[in-house]
Fold:
Amino acid sequence: MDLELFERDRHVTFLQMMYQLLPSPYQSQEINRLTLAYFVISGLDLLNSLDRLVDKDEVATWVLSLQAHPRSTAELNNGQFYGFHGSRAAQFPPENNDNGALNPSVSNLASTYCALALLKIVGYNLSSIDSESILTSMRNLQQPDGSFMPIHTGAETDLRFVYCAAAICHMLGNWSGMDKEKAKEYILKCQSYDGGFGLIPGSESHEAGS
Structure:
């Protein structure tokens, strides 16, 4: 791309609009609001417009409000994941939840990765968050083959979520949230004959996996 043709100001205006109010076509992506915020705010940061257009303290407060917290340390081993929810709607308790029953956390690895990345972008000190809950419960998501599920209720397992888990450990400066050797073995199994990596063992290699 010819850099002279890159219309920076128009990109900034678009991202500013998305930061202030998401257009109606994005209603179906409400559950992914945290991920959308990551792309918008990281875009403004890359364009050197973050300080001028974004209230960093406000962003940090909003992101922190989306973290799932166990009611006690004993719940960290109940099989659930206590990371970050993708949006406020994801924090609503299920309608069929009887009184006294545990409200299941639907936080997931992708949202947690985006949350921590956002906090770093706005300059928040990650040592201040409840990292123990994230890392201890994240081990519940790693599978025997070294891969990761994105959420404790069950979903596909592939290289994307191994990346999210590794990035989470790196940002928190603590690798206790995963078995690194098993994860490494899984990654190597995803390598194809051409040297690239697929998302799962035996799959076609492509740029996303690599």
